[in-house]
Amino acid sequence: MALMPEIEQRKSIRSYRPDPIAPEILDRVLEAGRLAPSAKNRQSWRFIVVTEESRRNRIQDAAFGQDYVGRAPAIIACCTTNIEYKMPNGQLSYPVDLAIASTYMTIQAQHEGLGTCMVTTFREEEVKSVLTVPYSMRVVMMVTVGWPDGGGAEKTTRLPMDRVVSHEHW
Questions:
Q1: Domain residues for 101?
Q2: DSSP codes of every residue in 90-121
Q3: Which tens digits make up the pLDDT trace of 56-66?
Q4: CA Rg, the chain, in Å?
Q5: Which pTM does this prediction carry?
């Protein structure tokens, strides 16, 4: 099983067809997130799937009107259930854990032929209200998911390996 094709082909999609996503496909995307590693295997996350159009539109409003957010047939809100746990290195675990889980989901979505875009530009309190997220929890990011309309974003260039990797020291 080769993953590099999915990783190399993945790009942020901001234009979706309105076609719904079959539940079994969406379940495989969510399963990828569920199986992701987390700090001390705490799995302190909750993924809220939003497919209802009126609720997607309310989330679009909370995302400063970014129209692709509401046009995606599904939005996955990535939430933490533990905002206080710090890893031994002193860093909060939930941003790292949810970044890993959302990445697993985007790679599985790419494998399924779906497009995704990670969304971090939104008013969290409004999203929490729309999704009835408890006060003590956080909505860290959202992932839009859907069938690309054929257009989509251009593949962005990545820095060359020698600019981002060093061995043994900085």
A1: 12-149
A2: S-BHHHHHHHHHHHHHHHHHHHTT-EEEEE--
A3: 999 999 999 99
A4: 17
A5: 0.94
